[in-house]
């Protein structure tokens, strides 16, 4: 179920939350997406990947990760041949997903994503820093602001049966 947050709650909790991780190993496991929202420049919060986004974040004990976010409302291709998609189908597929993988590190109270591969090629070879809040079962972080000033927010929940690491 998607939680509803006010923009003030989102921004304040993530920006002001003290880093509660002593090691990236504490994030090891599989996480499911709870929310992929967007804080607009006026402070309001809107859905960024639709009303029911899907996502998975897998982190190993050394910090290697794979992250996928998908908008549930993406347009299905009319053809079974992916290469025969229309411009609208390709646009929906690309803008309705965000994936990247690489190495995650904890540095200066921030999560650093060292991105090796990404669905947005411009991110490859970059390091992105995230202010975050970690409660053991939930990870919430702010993505760097977009060119229009909006700030994406990702909220992940640890899958059941995976205890937080000491």
Query: What is the CATH domain class?
Result: Mainly Beta
What is the CA-atom radius of gyration, in angstroms?
16 Å
Q: What percent of the residues sit in helical stretches (DSSP H or I)?
A: 10-25%
In terms of DSSP E residues, the strand content is 35-45%
Any guess at the CATH architecture? Beta Barrel
Span of the ends, CA to CA? 28 Å
Oligomeric nature of the chains: single chain
Basic shape: globular
> What class would the helix/strand composition place it in?
mainly beta
What is the N-to-C succession of helices and strands?
Answer: HEEEEHEEEEEE
- Write down the overall mean pLDDT: 88
Pfam families: Lipocalin_5
InterPro entries: Lipocalin-like (IPR024311)
Protein name: Lipocalin-like domain-containing protein
Domain Lipocalin-like: 29-150
Describe this structure in words.
The protein has 166 residues and is mainly beta. The chain has one domain: Lipocalin (Beta Barrel), CATH 2.40.128.280. 11% of the residues lie in helices and 40% in strands. Strands 1, 2, 3, 4, 5, 6, 7, 8, 9 and 10 form a ten-stranded antiparallel β-sheet that branches. The longest helix is centred in the N-terminal third of the chain and has 10 residues, at 7-16. The radius of gyration is 16 Å and the shape is globular. Mean pLDDT is 88; it is low at 1-9 and 13-19. It comes from Massilia agri. Residues 29-150 form the Lipocalin-like domain.
Brief write-up:
This is Lipocalin-like domain-containing protein. With 166 residues, the chain is mainly beta.
């Amino acid at each position: 179920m998607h939680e509803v947050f006010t923009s003030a709650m989102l921004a304040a909790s993530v920006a002001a939350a003290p880093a509660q991780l002593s090691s990236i190993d504490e994030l090891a496991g599989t996480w499911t997406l709870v929310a992929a929202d967007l804080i607009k420049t006026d402070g309001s919060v809107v859905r960024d990947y639709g009303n029911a986004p899907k996502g998975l974040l897998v982190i190993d004990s050394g910090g290697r990760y794979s992250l996928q976010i998908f908008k549930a409302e993406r347009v299905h291709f009319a053809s079974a041949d992916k290469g025969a998609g229309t411009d609208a189908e390709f646009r929906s597929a690309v803008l309705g997903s965000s994936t990247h993988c690489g190495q995650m590190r904890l540095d200066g109270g921030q999560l650093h994503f060292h991105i090796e591969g990404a669905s947005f090629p411009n991110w490859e070879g970059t390091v992105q820093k995230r202010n975050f809040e970690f409660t053991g079962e939930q990870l919430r972080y702010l993505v760097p602001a977009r060119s229009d000033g909006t700030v994406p927010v990702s909220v992940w929940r640890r899958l059941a049966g995976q205890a937080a690491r000491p």
